[in-house]
Design a protein that fits this description.
Helices cover about 45% and strands about 15% of the residues. The chain is an alpha/beta fold and about 425 residues long.
């Protein structure tokens, strides 16, 4: 079986952790014997913007690379800064990849086209599918429903075009169907819920965690892939001393961790506002934040205002291996994110036997609650976060029980191998019908 994947979310040196679920699923496909070619469009950047650190990184992304037995293409398309003219991205995205995708289809003849996100990826995938008579599967991770669908009339039409035109639509959680009423304009027979997963190889043992700490102190942050050497070196904009991993997980110096882009809906600010109360009980508590984004300066100011800055460590973007080292070293992973499709980081924390705190009715909430692997709280509620974190940190037996259950659940039900098996079965059903 040959699968052509179109996704703008695949990791690169610009966002080494962002979209890691796309990479991990593709790797699981390859391991299961599926041939994969992946198209990951990135913004075209003119040379005169080399002065800007982020835009300069886009220019360093290779045009093509081999990774884990698959070919990954990085065509360029015109994307404007700060989401300008967002309603027209789908057209520019399609034009940027059209010649490459047509060549791949004619020469390689894929059996299925998989798009991660309806907009703009799914719009392009459906157009190619219609043009060449190839089944199309669109996976919805959440952004399409809580943001793009409501951004403009043009975006609404594009999202509905992609989802109604796809042969199958995959949702990464039941919450996406429950919260957004997608069945009102898509045939329920086209919908499937397939949770994201976690790889055994990503679990960091205690010995590996110590090794990671030593490597990080030496400043080594290379990604474990076949891309250009040094492409994913960090620019070292994290807090000074952020690699000091001593006292992780000790009773008197507990560690909270959040992994996610620094954007408002991830809820970092509510964790910060919970810290004064938590520090009253756990004076040596540290809150470590993996990720970067537009909210960083505001969050740093908020930490200063709350008087908790010395207990907060902004790590910036980390490569996936280093982020997993942070998972291994924390006591509780808290992601109070709303409008969350699922959240692979919950699974990653659970696989490391860490209790998790999430938001009621969002993403992985059903899993967290039914399996008793953590606590869910109302959205936008710092007091509830403080109570939940305090309950877990104050009861080591409770925390260990949550951690054990979480690890067992992930390793028996939520690996990328399970995800790939279900998705490949879906593909085969489309090919043989």
């Amino acid at each position: 079986m040959r699968v052509l994947i179109i996704s703008h979310m695949y990791p690169s040196c610009v966002t080494p952790v962002g979209g890691i679920f796309v990479q991990k699923q593709a790797e699981a496909f390859v391991d299961a014997g599926v041939e994969v070619v992946l198209v990951n469009p990135v913004p075209w950047v003119p040379p005169f913007l080399d002065w800007h650190p982020r835009w300069r990184l886009f220019r360093q992304v290779p045009r093509r690379e081999q990774h884990h037995g698959m070919t990954v293409h990085y065509p360029r398309f015109v994307e404007l800064p700060k989401g300008l003219l967002f309603s027209s991205v789908a057209g520019r995205f399609y034009m940027g990849i059209a010649s490459l995708v047509r060549r791949i289809i004619k020469e390689w003849r894929p059996d299925v086209i998989q798009a991660h996100a309806a907009y703009p990826d799914g719009v392009a995938a459906v157009r190619f599918g219609n043009e060449y008579g190839i089944p199309v599967v669109v996976t919805v991770h959440g952004l399409d429903l809580y943001y793009t669908l409501n951004f403009s009339l043009a975006c609404e039409h594009s999202v509905k075009y992609a989802l109604s035109g796809a042969d199958r639509v995959v949702l990464v959680s039941e919450a996406l169907q429950k919260n957004y009423g997608i069945e009102q304009w898509i045939d329920l027979d086209k919908l499937s819920v397939i949770y994201n997963g976690m790889s055994f190889s990503d679990i960091v043992t205690d010995e590996q965690d110590r090794d990671l700490g030593a490597e990080q102190k030496e400043g080594r942050y290379d990604r474990d892939n076949d891309g250009d050497e040094g492409c994913c070196d960090r620019d070292n904009h994290g807090d000074e001393g952020h690699c000091d991993r001593n006292n992780y997980g000790s009773d008197d110096a507990p560690v909270l961790l959040t992994v996610g882009f620094l954007i408002e809906r991830k809820g970092h600010a509510y964790v910060l506002r919970a810290l004064p109360e938590l520090l009253g009980r756990f004076p040596r508590l540290t809150y470590r934040i993996v990720g970067d984004g537009e909210e960083r300066a505001r969050l740093e100011r908020l930490a200063e205002t709350l008087g908790v800055r010395s207990h907060v460590v902004f790590l910036g973007d980390l490569c996936h291996r280093d982020a997993m080292g942070e998972m291994a070293g924390c006591d509780v992973m808290v992601l109070p994110s709303w409008d969350e499709g699922f959240g692979v980081v919950y699974l990653e924390a659970m696989a490391h036997a860490k209790p998790v705190i999430g938001i009621q009715g969002e993403g992985a909430a059903l899993l967290i609650e039914s399996e008793k692997v953590g606590i869910t709280v109302p959205a936008h509620d710092s007091q509830a976060i403080a109570c939940a974190a305090g309950e877990i940190l104050g009861d080591r037996e409770l925390a260990r029980g949550m951690g054990r259950r979480g690890r067992d659940v992930v390793l028996t039900q939520f690996t990328w191998e399970h995800n790939a098996e279900r998705t490949i079965r879906l593909y085969k059903g489309l090919i043989t019908r």
